[in-house]
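Researcher: Here's a chain I'd like modeled. Treat it as a single chain, no partners, no ligands.
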Amino acid sequence: MKTALAKITKKIIIALLFPAITQAAECVQVFYDRGPSDYWIGHANAVFMQNLLGHFPHLQQIVEPIENYKKGDLNRCKASVYIGTHFQAAIPEDFHTDYMETTKNVAWLGYGIWRKPELLQKVFNCRYDKLTTLDTTRLDQSAKPTYFKWIDYKGERFKKFGEWSVTTPRFFHAPFEMSAVSPLDLVNSQTQILAVAEHNGTGERLPYILRNQNHFYVADSVFSYMHEADRYLIFSDLIFDILNEQPRHKKKYAVMRIEDVHPMIKNQTLEVISSTLKKLQVPINISIIPFYYDSLKYDDRPAKESFMPASQRPNFVAWIKDLQAHDATFIWHGVTHQYSKIKNPHTGASGDDFEFWNARTNRAIGEDSAKYVIDRMFIGAKELSKVSIHPYIWITPHYQASALDNIVFSHVVPWSMGRMIYQNVHLKSALPSHSKSTWYTDADLAKQKARLAKLSAISLETTSPWSGQLFPYEIYGDVYGQRVLPENLGNVQPKKNDQVVYPRTADEIIADAKRNLVLRDVWASYFYHPFLFEVPETLRPEHLPAGTAIRTQADFDGDTREMERVVVELKKMGYEFINIEDFARQNVDVLRPEPKVNWGNMNQ
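Model: Modeled as a single isolated chain. Structure tokens:
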């Protein structure tokens, strides 16, 4: 008896000391369409799904082409998702059978379900009718083609993107194709219609999301044309049910930041920003560019001001110190936020142009390498340290860089923030594991050299165009290994310009924040640019005729009244503005396991 008791005690001690040995991580499977050799969309959709699953860091991700499916695979993990993107995908019969019979949670997104009509009938008591099309004969009030644009979910209305192309005449961008299905008998069925699609031309309504206990069906692929009010956000909430996961936090977080702040922002504008942020009594977040560089002399400044480090402009340093006294968070936003001595593609000046991406050729810059990126970031970090800024969060200029750069960012800075750009990647070498010793904050020379050696050894090939993704909540590891803080509401930009195709108002920010309240773990994260608070030179007091009424900042687009209104309205909705660096530091040790993926003939 004593021997048996001793063995049991020993097992308990081992289990407590070494839980990773005795317990394997729960897993979730993603199946995608590989398609023909030049087909990249299935892979890209699987990447988007992986990134979204990064919100659930305890889950081991397993990614496989659907054509590799073997009988019983659906029973390996707690949940599985198949993303149907290719109309002619080779879907094994065993997947059809297992989808109908499995007791594990399983979701089918998008297309191909018409190959097995009895599947819809048996699982959801519904009939497949057709694939919807774009109606070019029935136009909306803006003279745009109509389609199943509106998606109703939990009492809120989401919408699919739909706009004319700005580069291709008479081409309309919209994810208008979806499976039209008809309920056969919902009275005697356990099927729930969780979301409904409505045609914005005819008013016809169709089921968009079906659920019958552990089975889910979404009528299209949710990752195309993502935007701030998109049905992708509905799926971002639905994934909690598919995975049978609880929310990570009860609070609804809000973050507002001021973007593209560099040393040559006008003093008057800096004063308006600081006074307004203090008045709002919300945590202050500044995206800072450590060096201003006007490589082509775009701005009308003295020659000595065409290159300006943050530490060399006294007024800027004083402004930084004042905000630091108010517990401001400074987010690292590139080094110069421009590239070389060219227009890339706008002016060549800091804040306007891309830094790590050639926007003119739509590919990585010629110098792109781990060493180039690390050396550049080291220069930026050194300059920021001169003004006592040691940032914990990184924002890539214009969110765009190569796949290699994003992997480097994930190893150099603890968190990234914003929207992310992804490409399908074929890794030719293993990625180094993430470690705090690789962050720029570790000044040990030996560790810096080790970091450079590890990251310089990365070898990869990109195999697709780039695509963008936004997140409604924090991600503890995307496919590049980045922890991502969300920016899901965009920025207030009331007018078009050479960088803005689709203007966005404060009212739209507020409306999308309200719409997103139906999501779990939701954030309201958005930003403003400093130029919105500049008073035109001709309307400043010193330029006005004697006796002319002084115009105030409130008379201009993006004025401080609008900023205050957004904050007030979000607080009314229950959003809580948080110190984003505190959140980042408290959650920095959370990281998901490395995914197990199979990209067909190119194994990662």
